[in-house]
Design brief:
Helix content is 29%, strand content 19%. It is of the alpha+beta class. InterPro entries: AmpC-like, Beta-lactam-related, Beta-lactam/transpept-like.
Length: 500
């Protein structure tokens, strides 16, 4: 379990001190794959003086979509459907759209999961139609649906699309969705505090009710739970911060090479949920973030690419009376969940800031990359040639013809002499190469330092995919300090030989 520094815990304790909270309560937690590392409750979830506890239940709304997607992928893993299947093959009431030229544009299961079906955004309507019966929903589908985009082209957030996935699950399994999901996913994962209906909790369980306000929180009125019907598969779930920590830890464990359990859903399928499939605009509920260099929808999850830390998976939830957000760093499993029991709170802003503070403080790598043995051997050989003769052509490793022909030998020698002089000459003794690895872009790439008297050389090489692998590129730069690192990909860290 990751230990959070005392100063970070203090900052988290006071995170909302200078924020005007227009919500009866907020429950938030930091977690890793082992579970909750920190929890704090603010406000009164029942308006009775009690702050939310770690086991207080909140409605998580559209955070449910990641659970639903996992269920669809379980069915694919069992050979009962394929992502390429047409929706019309599983839901006879559904009709594919037709373009202006009369050409049918097929919609697939995958398009629904990645929000590229072409169905338009429907949150305002869907939030109040969550309780539609299966028959009533299928009547809506049979009457025809209008498409705002060509299927497969662009992102449009569609609740109806996920409701269709729920119908598919029921048609394929012959089971009611919530019962099948509970038996297949929730119970095996030990998510004992996660349910699709508040009525399924034992009497006396603390469940945060939903509230609304028209005067910025001066007074509150009850927002009864929106009924659960056909839309329950995509937005009806209730959970706790502990269960969300367990859920996200299971998803992110797909990126942990030491975690080998594929019994419920394969690691490959779970990784696919957390990979960008449909590019999306920047988040409208958060300030512009220069460190966010890409965002999109995966399968049932949003995926962000952070300049420094790499991939972050996340999803918000919102229903009348509730707001939520969960997010985690896929490589390390560090994450944050924020619940509020009113709508419109935009917990994604707080969750983003908290996770950024945790990542900045703990500094996990964006990725840990295990270099090929041939990559490490080439680095050792190149370094030895630099030390012995000053000519990389003498390296005892296969070199690609372009490496020597791209730069004349005399120019190479002059450049290397200048670089060595720039660090005051190279030291006669050095730490092992494994201790001097700085970053890697892939298993076929490595960067490392050679210490000098007044600085260090950073060497970077790339290997070919051939057998044997050849050194196809070599760059050498002067750094003023041994601790300096190239700014590019500096959080893509290579593992030492024999380590992860």
């Amino acid at each position: 379990m990751t230990a959070l520094p005392d100063d970070l815990v203090t900052a988290l304790d006071h995170w909302f001190d200078h924020t005007t909270l227009v919500t009866p309560s907020i429950s938030y937690a930091v977690f890793d794959r082992s579970g909750v590392l920190y929890h704090h409750g603010v406000g009164e979830f029942l308006l009775d003086g009690r702050a939310p506890a770690i086991d207080t239940v909140y409605r998580i709304a559209s955070m449910s979509k990641s659970f639903e997607t996992a269920i669809v992928l379980v069915l694919e893993q069992r050979g009962l459907l394929a992502q390429s299947d047409l929706i019309s093959a599983h839901v006879p009431e559904f009709r594919d759209p037709v373009d202006a030229n009369g050409v049918t544009m097929p919609v697939t299961v995958r398009m629904l999961m990645e929000n590229s079906s072409g169905l338009p955004e429907d949150n305002g309507w869907a939030d109040h139609e969550l309780g539609l019966s299966r028959d009533d929903f299928l009547a809506v589908v049979a009457a025809g649906l209008d498409f705002a985009e060509r299927p497969g082209d662009v992102y449009q957030y569609s609740n109806i699309g996920f409701w269709l996935l729920g119908v598919i699950v029921e048609n394929v399994t012959g089971r009611e969705f919530a019962a099948f999901a509970t038996e297949t996913l929730l119970e095996p994962l030990g998510l004992s505090s996660t349910r699709y209906d508040a009525a399924h909790y034992d009497a006396g369980r603390d469940i945060a009710p939903g509230f609304g306000t028209f005067d910025e929180g001066a007074t509150w009125f009850d927002r009864p739970f929106v009924g659960t019907g056909i839309g329950g598969c995509a937005a009806s779930m209730f959970s706790t911060v502990s269960d969300i920590a367990r859920w996200s830890g299971w998803l992110s464990s797909a990126f942990d090479p030491d975690y080998a359990d594929d019994s419920i859903l394969s690691r490959a399928a779970r990784r696919s949920m957390q990979r960008l499939h449909t590019s999306t605009p920047s988040p409208s509920d958060r300030p512009a973030e220069p460190q966010l260099e890409g965002i999109g929808y995966g399968l049932g999850l949003f995926v962000e690419n952070d300049v420094r830390f790499g991939l972050i998976a996340q999803h918000s939830g919102g229903l009348p009376g509730f707001s939520s957000n969960m997010r985690w760093h896929t490589e390390s499993g560090l994450g944050v969940v924020v619940f509020a029991n009113t709508n419109g709170v935009k917990p994604g802003i707080a969750a983003t800031g908290i996770l950024r503070a945790v990542l900045d403080r703990l500094d996990p790598p964006a990725r840990v990359i295990a270099p090929w043995p041939s990559t490490l051997a080439a680095a050792a050989a190149i370094e030895q040639a630099i030390l012995d003769s000053g000519d990389v052509a003498d390296a005892d490793t296969p070199l690609s013809p372009n490496l020597l022909s791209d730069v004349p030998a005399a120019v190479r020698a002059t450049r290397l002499d200048r670089s060595v002089a720039g660090v005051g000459g190279l030291l006669g003794t050095r730490p092992p190469l494994a201790d001097r690895l700085t970053w890697a872009a892939s298993a076929a790439h490595i960067a490392w330092t050679i210490p000098g008297r007044t600085g260090a050389l950073e060497c970077r090489l790339e290997m070919t995919p051939t057998r044997p692998a050849l050194v196809q590129r070599l760059d050498i730069e002067v750094h003023a300090s041994v601790t300096d690192r190239s700014p590019v990909n500096r959080h893509y860290r290579p593992s030492a030989p024999g380590a992860r």
